[in-house]
Amino acid sequence: MTKKQYAFYPGCSSQKGASASNYLTSFGVMCDKLDIQLNEIPDWNCCGASIGYAEGGELPRLVLNARNLAISEQALPGQDIVSGCPACWLSIRETVERLHESSSLLAETNEALKEAGLNLKSQLRGRHMTEVLIEDIGYDAMKAAVVKPLDGVKIAGYVGCQANRPYGIAGESFENPQYLDMMIETVGAKAVPYDQKVSCCGGALAFSEPEKAQKQIRDIVESAYDSSADLIVTPCPLCQANVEIYQSEINKKQGTKFNMPVVYYTQLLTLAYGGSAKESGLDGQLIRAEKLEKIAGK
Predict the structure, then answer these.
(1) What is the pLDDT of residues 181-208, one digit of tens each?
(2) Using only C-alpha atoms, what is the Rg of the chain?
(3) Domains along the chain with CATH numbers
(4) What pTM, to 2 d.p., does this model score?
(5) 213-239 pLDDT, tens per residue?
């Protein structure tokens, strides 16, 4: 079967040794099982994410992303740009839309890109990996690839805010998106009712205003426990890191005993497709997902 080809933007957190490197590990195995070929954009740079909105101004922020777009257009023509990080995805999509809407802004952007010997010509398409799975692969094909169903595992699907607004997945509700629950059911696990699925984890407030962020995180984790979930699954590296890492801090400060694993949807799919614990990136968890490790060992 001919593999579907995409220009791949990994993002900073997925680099080797970074906080979401296990996300990238499971990404690769999952894509191989689904005949998806990700072609990494050569010499890509940081998208800017939240820091790009500080005081640098709109043009510098857009140029950061436009450089990646121009390189992709040159090296991987005709391929949609795919990212696994909602923050990166938002940055890419915003840049594509703003430059498509404003010929003067595009001209200014290309003036800046000229310094790097680049020129952005056409309108590319920026997509999150979940969009590719849903729109290009489909739930039936995702289910057909399952060789090791995750029977008996109860999972809270945590979409988060950046993966849901302002864009979200086409056709989905902003208040109660169903696609993550459907992916959970596709691999044989049970999606539990979860009232925090689109809540914010606190994002960068984890550093600047930790008490506010930890209040958000406590609500997210407690809701998962209230729904009898064995673990939380998310499509967002920042959500994964915040909700997993700060459970121990909340335990120290508030006397709770949280120990809720937080994993990526790619890890569920990779495991269900026959991947080992290492291939699924389960060795990169701070809070071990023991039920998934047990399935991986079968």
Answers:
(1) 999 999 999 999 999 999 999 887 888 8
(2) 19
(3) 4-129 (1.20.1050.140), 147-296 (3.40.50.11810)
(4) 0.94
(5) 999 999 999 999 999 999 999 999 999
